[in-house]
Amino acid sequence: MNIVDYWNISGNFWEANPQLIAHPVLKLLHKGDKTRGKKESSRIMWAVALATDFSSKYKGIEIEGRKDLIAKEYLEDPKFDWDSVQKYIDVWITFLSPAQKHLVLWERILQEKSLYMETLNYAEHGMELEKMLKTNGDLYSELTRLNKMLAEEEGAGHVKGGAHESLSETGEI
After folding, report:
1. Residue 128: its pLDDT value, please?
2. How far is CA 161 from the centre of its chain?
3. First and final CA of the chain: distance in angstroms?
4. Rounded-to-5 percentages of helix, strand, coil across the chain
5. DSSP characters for 73-137?
6. Which of 52, 53, 30, 31 is nearest to 41 (CA)?
């Protein structure tokens, strides 16, 4: 399931994705933007899409690195305050499929675990670290399963070239 069907980050987000204006939080952002062509809110939403959407080319980059890159290169503001747009990120997550939401949760937990493990030194916490490392295999197996489920979900209902399957192709008629 893609939230953004057409990626053109130099274009207007709202023109490319007018259906998203219907969400109350995004409607307020859009309506409150007094810049010409809603340019500022468009930039914010493209940044959110780049950081959050599963079809973003940045998705493979760890989240903090992804946000830093987007802030520096796209927004041209290395000190961009991502907390100021958290409500838009939260809205974006509501549009995700159940599999995508679950994957977001797993990625966050694994990242938090990795950051915590980096704070531990082996001399004092060797046994704890080894136990945590052993459980990583199970966690990554589940992550792989979720990614596979997501790939199947994204592939369902589409044919080569991204077109949707016809009713006869899906066996409905």
Report:
1. 93
2. 23
3. 23
4. 70, 0, 30
5. IISS-TT--GGGGHHHHHHHHHTS-HHHHHHHHHHHHHHHHHHHHHH--HHHHHHHHHHHHHHHH
6. 30
Distance between CA atoms of 36 and 38, rounded to whole angstroms?
5
Q: Look at the chain and count its residues.
A: 173
Residues 6+ away with beta carbon under 8 Å from 140: 110
- Which of 123-136 are b and which e, b meaning 16 or more Cβ less than 10 Å from the residue's Cβ? eeeeeeeeebeeee
pTM greater than the 0.90 cutoff: no
Could you identify the residue written with the tokens 């199970």? 138
The per-residue pLDDT for 122 is 92
Beta bridge partners of 164: 158
Query: Residues of the chain whose pLDDT is less than 70?
Result: 1, 154-173
Share of the chain above pLDDT 90, in %: 49
Q: What single letter denotes the amino acid at residue 76?
A: E
CA dist 85 → 64, 112, 116, 155, 166 (Å)? 15, 21, 26, 31, 39
Rounded Cα–Cα distance for residues 2 and 66 (Å): 19
